[in-house]
Each structure stands twice: as C-alpha cells, then as structure tokens.
Amino acid sequence: MSPSPVPETPDTAAGTAARRDWMSVLAKAPAADLDALWQAHGATPVFTWLRAPEVGAVMVRGRAGAVGAAFNLGEMSVTRASLRLADGTVGHAYVQGRSRRKAEQAALVDALMQTGAADSIGTAILAPLKGAASDRAEGRAARAAATKVEFFTMVRGENK
C-alpha cells in the first residue's frame, strides 16, 4: 500500500514567510501562555509522532555590536518534535527550553495552520501570543528608555 500524499505549505514566498512568522511566535512564547490558549481552544486532533519531543542543546552565536566576527556565546536548551495529523499534514516545532508539552502543542499548531483550521487557530492562539510578545517588547523598550542618558555640550564664551 502506497503512502497517502502529504499536504504541504504553499511553496510561495508569502506562504513561507507566514509559516516562518507563526513558527517564531510559537518558539518564543512562554509555555504557560501557549498551554492556556491551547486548552481554551479545546482542539484535540488525532496524530502520530514522526519524532517524539526530544530535548537537546544548540550553540548560540553572537557578534559584538552586531558586526565583526561571530563568537560562541553559549549553549541553549531546545526541544523539537514532528507529528502527522490524521489527514497527512505534518507539523514541526523547535522551542526554547525543555518543555515537551510545549513542543507537542507548537507542532500541533503548525500542522493545523496548514489546514482549514488555520483561521480558528490563528485567532484563538497565534494572535494572543503575538499581542503578548508585543506587550513584552514594549515593556522592555520603556524600561530601557527610562535609563537613557542625553549628552550635550554647552557652548562656552571663548569659542566665538
């Protein structure tokens, strides 16, 4: 028996960018926020594991001042997972930290975003996560702005 065809994300620049965006939101979201939204949505799709959640580490690299030669900053824990929905849609996740549950939920959201449930999932889960991320970024910017120092030079009389 031959395997059934697997639906794929649209092979367009817009489709690739959209998937990259929702994968980024899922990877960076706090596990508790994703879990609360997932539970509130109540989706329970049937799936099989392609790669059960597994924890590993990646090397984080940086550049001083965002320029110059890259250097190894240190290691960070990540959890990855891959699954296939009953209709054949495949979802993947790479998330920060060691939460297997978050990796499972992120992979499920990725898979569902490639199906007809995309609007529902986007509204119920991704939009609130994006809003919370934006609020966190604004809070960090406000705290940083509070410490900003303005330097100025006073004009002296002998420099005419």
Describe this structure as you would to a colleague.
This protein is an alpha+beta fold and 160 residues long. Helices cover 43% and strands 24% of the residues. The protein has a 3-stranded antiparallel sheet. A hairpin with an 8-residue loop joins strand 1 and strand 2. The longest helix has 29 residues, at 118-146. It is elongated, with a radius of gyration of 22 Å.
Across the major sheet, the strand order is 1-2-3
Which geometry do the CA atoms define? elongated
Write down the Rg.
22 Å
Mean pLDDT: 87
Structural topology:
Blueprint lengths: L12 H16 L2 H11 L5 E16 L8 E15 L4 E7 L3 H13 L5 H29 L14
Antiparallel strand pairs: 1-2, 2-3
Helix pairs in contact: 1-3, 1-4, 2-3, 2-4
Task: Summarize the model shown.
This protein has four helices and three strands. The chain is an alpha+beta fold and 160 residues long. The chain has a three-stranded antiparallel sheet.
